[in-house]
Design a protein that fits this description.
Blueprint lengths: L1 H40 L7 H7 L3 E12 L2 H7 L5 E20 L5 E13 L10 E5 L1 H9 L5 H14 L4 E5 H6 L1 E2 L1 H11 L10 E2 L8 E2 L3 E4 L11 E4 L11 H4 L18 E6 L4 E13 L2 E7 L30 E3 L9 E4 L8 H5 L8 H4 L2 E5 L4 E15 L15 E14 L1 H75 L1
Antiparallel strand pairs: 1-2, 1-18, 2-3, 3-8, 3-9, 4-5, 6-7, 9-10, 11-12, 12-13, 13-16, 14-15, 15-17, 16-17, 17-18
Helix pairs in contact: 1-11
Length: 508
């Protein structure tokens, strides 16, 4: 019986160790299988399922606008009052992105394409109609005034006279549709007509809108790495409009085109990584660091957000000195980017909404600015195994630089440079329900099954080994007790025998 118990305990102990070993081996084996399968599916190949979803992304994308309605225009112009604005929005547009003219290199290492963007107004997701009106800064007027600020006084006098003749005012009432998509601007038409009468072509359009001409258009030719040669380079931009760098800024670092377009990344993202993306609407590359874990429609993701130093001043981030335009002596404070270098000289200044993470002076200069992280922060939610973006929000604010300009009466009461907010936008994307379901069934569930097998074997093996150790200890304890009892009985018999011998000797 004792021998049989020893054999059983030995067999179970060996079995537990074997299961643990198999589970440990399968960790590496299954990880290799997962990496191999993902590395096979993720690269961009003509006609693949990945290609089809890349061309026509299965996500709900919206572009939403919040416009700033100026409450005290008269007091600003005549008394230099602090601007008061009230946010109105959102005005929402459903966005459709489709990649066109896709061509692959001979070895399929790169792919080139255009991405056409079409926007359709969604009244149900908006606070009002596109014809809602509000008071905004007269951007073309301020643009012309800024353009002549260093010219001779006679030029400024002529421009001031033109403002009066045309009835231009520093603040105007516009519709949502006008400001975003464009309207015929009398001042632009006047300048164009005057130039044409002298056979001069200025290349100006009679219309002005912050997104004029962009609906149904593309933002240039992209060439990206497909990942077939190097999976870590998948979807990384090689060139934009045939160029490996930008021509706008003052340093190589600032002109670099880094990362992807932000919709896809290489697989097996690590929390320690910095994700990079190139954004044509801000004419520069951006980056984001890991902030925390999130869940999107039942799928675990890593959230990445831009650090404050990305738009930091040169004291906070010396690398940003290249964004000081027109030269490195023209540096702004934290949280803003002078876009004039890539916007034909227009005094557009980009920031996060409500100057989130910006210099407190910019926030306090405008009454109505209330920066909030949860509302105004840009973020990327990336599924780490595949590198697919499941949820994202790109949030930006368009401001116009306003300053006092000699002989331009409308600007006379401004005391110093002010970044006047016009609107802020949120371009958001969220994977739809059907795609989320397919993603879980095709990628996550098989991985979960493999995890269950390998860790299940380890758990079962550890349990068997634990039970074997417990029963072995119990067996040896019981055996020790049994042997101790036998020893006591033997000693008792010896004592009885000795007592009998003693009695016999006494009788003699």
């Amino acid at each position: 019986m004792g021998c049989s118990t020893k054999v059983k305990l030995t067999v179970f102990g060996v079995l537990g160790i074997v299961l643990i070993a198999i589970g440990g081996i399968l960790i590496d084996v299954f990880d290799q299988v997962i990496h191999s399968e993902v590395n096979e599916q993720i690269p961009l190949k003509p006609g693949s399922e990945t290609f089809k979803k890349w061309v026509n992304p299965p996500a709900d994308v919206f572009l939403q606008f919040w416009l700033f309605d100026v409450q005290n225009a008269y007091e600003i112009v005549h008394y230099g009052a602090k601007p008061i604005v009230v946010e109105k929005g959102p005005y929402s547009y459903r966005e459709y992105k489709v990649k066109t003219n896709v061509t692959f290199s001979e070895d399929n290492a790169t792919a080139s394409y255009y991405e056409t963007r079409t926007l359709v107004f969604d009244r149900n997701m908006s606070v009002g109609d596109e014809n809602d009106t509000f008071v905004s800064l007269n951007c073309p007027m301020m643009g012309f005034a800024t353009l002549v600020r260093f010219e001779y006084d006679i030029i400024k006098d002529i421009l001031e006279a033109a403002f009066e003749v045309l009835g231009e005012h520093l603040f105007v009432k516009l519709t949502v549709k006008d400001l975003i998509w464009g309207y015929e601007e009398p001042l632009l038409k006047f300048v164009n007509d005057a130039a044409k009468s002298r056979n001069i072509s200025l290349g100006l359009d009679d219309h002005f809108g912050l997104f004029y001409g962009q609906n149904g258009s593309n933002d240039g030719l992209y060439t990206i790495y497909t990942g077939t040669k190097d999976i870590t380079q998948a979807y990384t931009i090689q060139t934009w409009n045939g160029n490996e760098s930008l021509p706008y800024w003052e340093t190589i670092w600032c002109n670099a085109i880094n990362g992807t377009d932000g919709s896809l990344y290489h697989p097996f993202i690590k929390k320690s990584e910095t994700l990079r993306l190139f954004a044509t609407d801000v004419c520069r590359s951006l980056y984001a660091d890991y902030e925390g874990d999130r869940t999107v429609k039942g799928i675990d993701v890593y959230r990445f957000v831009p650090p404050a130093k990305m738009f930091g001043d040169i004291k906070t981030n010396p690398d940003n000195i290249g964004f000081c335009t027109p030269n490195i002596t023209e540096c702004l404070g934290s949280g803003v980017l002078n876009m004039s270098a890539c916007k034909d000289g227009a005094q557009i200044v980009m920031s996060s909404p409500h100057f989130y993470q910006g210099d407190p002076d910019y926030v306090s200069a405008i009454e109505g600015m209330h920066p909030e992280k949860d509302v105004h922060q840009t973020f990327l939610d990336v599924e780490p195994i595949s590198g697919v973006l499941l949820s994202a929000a790109k949030r930006l604010q368009i401001n116009i630089a306003v300053m006092p300009i000699p002989l331009i009466s409308s600007t006379a009461k401004f005391k110093n440079l002010t970044f006047f907010p016009i609107l802020w936008l949120n371009e958001s994307a969220l994977i739809n329900d059907a795609t989320a379901k397919d993603f879980k069934s095709q990628i996550l569930e098989p991985i979960k099954i493999l995890d269950a097998v390998k860790y299940g074997l380890i758990t079962i093996g550890a349990f068997i080994l634990f039970c074997t150790i417990v029963f072995t200890i119990k067996y040896w304890v019981q055996r020790s007790r049994t042997r101790g009892g036998e020893l006591q009985i033997n000693r008792g018999d010896y004592d009885v025998l000795r007592d009998g011998e003693n009695e016999q000797q006494d009788g003699e």
